[in-house]
Amino acid sequence: MKIYGHLVFSLLIIFSAVGCKKDETKALENGQIELTLNNCGTPKNYGNNSSASVTVCFIKLVSESRCPTGAECIWEGYAECEFSINVDGENKSFRLATLKNLLLNTDTTINGSKISLVSVLPYPDITKPSSEPYTAILKIEH
Q: What separation in angstroms does the CA of 136 have from each of 20, 23, 79, 115?
């Protein structure tokens, strides 16, 4: 009977550990959130409404044309990312870029909150291509 109890307990521990997914999100200070590509996260504070259920997702890297470190370029280029935000069940998609021009935006306003793209990492480097997954840092202000 003791062996059966130990076996059940061991299987319970194994299955609960397998079910856990590593959180690829970091809620930073000053309303910033760091998201790894294809992952979602919850900002520490979402404006004045701390009871709101908020999830922000880094859906995809749309474009990566930034001039790599070590290269000589005629323009700086940009990274463009697609995100989604879900506030209390209402989902909205948006794109932000590291460069603002007539077609690209570095920030947007959704439900009264300003969402800005702070950076996209890793920055391209001509001498050492990165195998790290892309990470976007967003700032959310209400």
A: 23, 15, 10, 12
